[in-house]
# Entry
Amino acid sequence: MNKTHSTLLILAVGAWLLGLWLGPTTGWAIFALGLLLMVLISGHQLQQINRWVRNVHQPPPASVGPWDHILAPIYRQLKQNRLQIHQLKSQVDAIIMAAEALPDGTLTLDEDFRIQWCNQTASAHLGLNLATDRNHPIFHIVRHPEFIHYVQSKKWDDSLLLQNHQPGQQRSLLIHISQYGIGQYILVSRDITQLERLERARKDFVANVSHELRTPLTVLYGFIETLHETSLDELDQAQRQEYLRLMMEQAEHMRALVSDLLTLSALESTPGNEHVPVAVGSVLQQAIQQGQALSQGRHHFHMEIDDGLNIMGAETELSSAFSNLINNAVRYTPKGGKITIYWQQTAAGEALFKVKDSGIGIAPEDIPRLTERFYRADRARSRATGGTGLGLAIAKHVAARHQAHLAIHSELNQGSCFSLRFPAHHVAHTTQLGPTATPID
Ligand code: ADP
# Structure
């Protein structure tokens, strides 16, 4: 029996007893009054419930008589549903955030290929604006015929390579579509512009190396053929010596090329963070000796070197970079020119290496491209002096691995200055240095 039934029963029994005592009219009047009171209370309670229904997020009214039993489980269920909705919303948000964070573009389409949702990467890849493009067919936005054909063909085993040109940028996109659910499609776009560029660079590099090796090989082959076809007594000593000298020159060129290629490959394939204190003074001494040997007394060398200035780095790499820059100064400076080699700490604490020459200089338009592999401003001179076209590419790599900056200043017919600026935190303190440090003459 619920609260209403028991109240009614008490009212009826009370009214009947009072009716026995005071007469049936009074009994019925009290019963009627009691009923009226119950109706009024019920009305008030319904009003409270009505107010609560309009804002079910609040707890139900504290006491609404018999309605308490009905409202409590409803409110419990509401609370539970709210919690579940909140959890589901968090999950959906997390999924959307994960989809947003994907490096690939992701876009969902309905059965008529109308855009339903896309992440920011897809917007950027395909030039979409979800706010205005939602529910529009994808073909209205991406209008490339090959794309439209790919989407409509529904043959999606292979991806589509799409060259997407948009104002200010050109992208190579790999597009793939899959079906999920019923009549739902997901389109994934991957930007492979960088990969394609790398692949192109790799192909160019192989072609360049082949071309660089072919010339000395052809010359070498020509001499070998001549020597093979000519009987020994047909050639005098001087001719033979000249042939051998020219052959050695070509072989030396190929050796230098292969050696530079191996250096570059080592620079690219090793992590380059195993730095130890390097006695730069002695490294420079060797590089200068090599430069002077190459110069054969044709240039005036001037040195401003701080022997005590050492840095953390990789000795062989630094040696290779310094040698390349010093040798270039020799090779591109005519006889009688001046070459200054500078190694000092700057006021800001950086270590600065500079090679300044009074040589042929470089045209401004060539300067930005000098560190490209096989790029030569003066092709004839580079070849004549046995250049491989890789020296500055190596120097730039070494600089990057030491967080240094390679700067080139040059003026045509006036001379050039190549510098490597190592950050202050790369400077090694004398106490860090091993016993290999030897001062330069
Ligand atoms: P190379 O073996 O041809 O010298 P590098 O990579 O060392 O190759 O240099 C690239 C080009 O930069 C050279 O071919 C040359 O044209 C130019 N160059 C480098 N150093 C100098 C310099 N000190 N003076 C003038 N030109 C230079």
